[in-house]
Specification:
- The protein is about 40% helix and about 15% strand.
- It is an alpha/beta fold and about 375 residues long.
- α4 links the parallel β2 and β3.
- α2 runs parallel beside α9 and α12 packs across α14.
- The longest helix has 19 residues.
- The radius of gyration is 21 Å and the shape is globular.
């Protein structure tokens, strides 16, 4: 980018949104075409061949995503789970993969199924257990995939330290940055090889776009080159309209995220002192076991928090039933606040505590949110 458009608050507004050179349009154009013409000599008139391979609108989105994460290359996908599927499809039978034992339930399910189908050995580990991680890395796994913060227990992984340990064994580190977003954390600058995220969440921020992204520190990485080929043939690409909506939403990403964190920090501190709340899981609280790591590698602690409520599952369900302003719904990162009893959604195979409620804090008035939570906590 030209000029001084280098800070992330400026990048969200300008990256991928350069003035259209052919028309002078300031707003990015939406290219809906699925195919692109050739001249009489058979040569393509432009750089695109077919919508599954690429599209000018998707190019703009990927330019923006790479700029925000400090990546050498970016690939947009139809969903976050499509990113995880692509990663596993790019592996070979017999490869070993380590995953965090606390991560989004849907990804855990997907990886278990794919591991069995593709002959990839998947080991879930508590990444706080240094001895177990060292033993697993000694087997030189191909990939280690983790979230930070994790979903839904909000644990924080020391990305820089883990990257060093992975690279010493020739293991590729992939960090899911969904809960932080590039506004609060940039794992590639901490040593990760790849970053993945569900763009459905904070980058969209309005609950109306499904998408995912994978970003690489080095586009010469063998896994990235294989992924780039596979994406063209598997068809897990987002529609041009979804790319256009995401690019539009990214312009307000910084404003939204900081307002959400303002609300979350205040609510987490208040909830920690409320009767009926056994614990607040939030990296911004000094009581959080990885609070120091979060302060070191994140700009701010995020807007996701989980509550462990008194009364077990019944207490969690009672709390959920009393909410009025918080919407009872799956997902996170939207401008509107959401609440979810994770165990009920994940089903009988869930390892999430039965009294855990996950809160995604939105941009509403703080006192209105506090009032709603206070009413839900009344004895």
């Amino acid at each position: 980018m030209k000029g001084n458009k280098t800070t992330i608050d400026t990048l969200v507004v300008h990256a991928g949104r350069e003035v259209d050179p052919s028309t002078g349009a300031v707003a990015p154009p939406l290219h809906l075409s699925t195919t692109f013409a050739r001249g009489v000599d058979g040569e393509l008139l432009g750089e695109h061949l077919y919508g599954r391979h690429g599209n000018p609108t998707r190019d703009r989105l990927e330019t923006a995503l790479a700029a925000l994460e400090g990546a050498a290359a970016a690939a947009a996908f139809a969903s976050g789970c499509a990113v995880a599927e692509a990663l596993f499809t790019a592996l070979r039978s017999g490869d070993r993969v380590i995953v965090s034992d606390d991560m989004y339930f849907g990804i855990r399910q997907l990886l278990r199924e794919l591991g069995e189908s593709f002959g990839v050995e998947v080991t879930a580990l508590d990444l706080d257990d240094d001895a177990a991680v060292d033993r697993a890395l000694a087997a030189r796994p191909k990939l280690l995939l983790c979230e930070s913060p994790t979903n839904p227990l909000l644990r924080v992984v020391d990305i820089a330290a883990l990257a060093g340990r992975c690279h010493a064994q020739g293991t590729t580190l992939v960090v899911d940055n969904t809960l932080a977003s590039p506004i609060l954390q940039q794992p590639l600058t901490l040593g990760a090889d790849f970053v993945m995220c569900s763009t459905t969440k904070f980058l969209s921020g309005h609950g109306d776009v499904l998408g995912g992204a994978l970003l690489a520190a080095d586009e010469a990485h063998p896994l990235w080159r294989r992924l780039a080929k596979l994406r063209k043939v598997t068809g897990a690409s987002p529609s041009p309209f979804d790319c256009w909506l995401l690019l539009r939403s990214i312009a307000t990403l910084s404003l939204r995220v900081h307002r959400q964190v303002d609300n979350a920090e205040a609510l987490a501190a208040w909830l920690a002192d409320q009767p009926g709340v056994e614990a607040v899981l939030y990296p911004g609280l000094a009581s959080h076991p990885q609070h120091a790591i979060a302060r070191r590698q994140m700009k701010r602690p995020g807007s996701m928090l989980s509550l462990l409520l008194a009364g077990g599952e019944a207490g969690a369900r009672r709390f959920m039933a009393r909410l009025e302003l918080f919407t009872r719904a799956t997902s996170l990162g939207s401008v509107h606040s959401l609440a979810e009893h994770r165990r009920a959604v994940e089903g009988p195979d869930s390892t999430t505590p039965d009294n855990l409620v996950r809160l995604s804090i939105g941009i509403e008035d703080l006192e209105d949110l506090r009032t709603d939570l206070a009413r839900a906590l009344e004895a």
